[in-house]
Amino acid sequence: MWTREQIAARAAEELTPGSYVNLGIGLPTLVANFIRPNQRITLQSENGLLGVGPYPARGTADADWINAGKETITANAGASTFDSATSFAMIRSGRIDVALLGAMEVAANGDLANWMVPGKRVKGMGGAMDLVAGVRRVVILMEHCTHAGESKLLKRCTLPLTGQSVVDRVITDLGVFDIEDDAFVLRELAAGTTLERVREATAGTLRISPSFH
């Protein structure tokens, strides 16, 4: 199965040159380490930074430069900072091309649940609801199953929704899946796993793409 770093590296391949991309909290923030300069990708952090760079090298972190998850980051040459109102104006007006987000559950119809578990304390919903409504493409990065071994790719979400029919693609430790016609369509299998394992670990309808590899 793919490691978290391999999931992030695979997600970086999803990004087309010249794109503006928001990185969600958690696993998606690792993608910054796998952006190549010749990709010309501009990363946005919803707390007010356009031009996010990779994580700082040990001993070089500046506590004034953080992402939405309060992790220290770097800023690329030409980066700009701004307030949250400007940041969300970018998101809500459709100026961000792709959102790379984490998830607790994804449904076969594209529904997303990624902000709370009922009964557990949460700080707030964050910007995910604005992101899934305002960006052009939503790609989810997550482990395929919970720590208890239960699938997170479901026929229907059981947790409170972040958005309805908003997910375009899911990248997990088992492979790459598109959302099409109320099903998870397997496009690519992660190295080290099997199609049988994917079938066992997926609770929603699973189909195999003709271009599967």
* Beta-strand content bin: 25-35%
Oligomer: single chain
Rg, please?
17 Å
CATH C-level category: Alpha Beta
Low-pLDDT windows of residues: none
Mean of pLDDT: 94
Quote the distance from N terminus to C terminus: 15 Å
In N-to-C order, the SSE pattern is HEEEEHEEEHEEEEEHE
Secondary-structure-based class equals alpha/beta
CATH homologous superfamily name? Glutaconate Coenzyme A-transferase
Do you know the CATH topology? Glutaconate Coenzyme A-transferase
Give a verbal description of the structure.
The strands form two sheets. A ten-stranded mixed β-sheet has the order 4-3-2-1-5-8-10-11-12-13. It has helices spanning 4-12, 84-92, 128-134, 195-201; strands at residues 20-23, 42-45, 49-52, 75-81, 98-101, 105-107, 112-113, 137-141, 153-154, 169-171, 175-180, 183-189, 206-208. It has a single domain (4-208), classed as Glutaconate Coenzyme A-transferase (3-Layer(aba) Sandwich). With 213 residues, it is α/β, with parallel strands linked by helices. A hairpin with a 3-residue loop joins strand 10 and strand 11 (175-180). The relative contact order is 0.16. Helices cover 15% and strands 25% of the residues. It contains four helices and 13 strands.
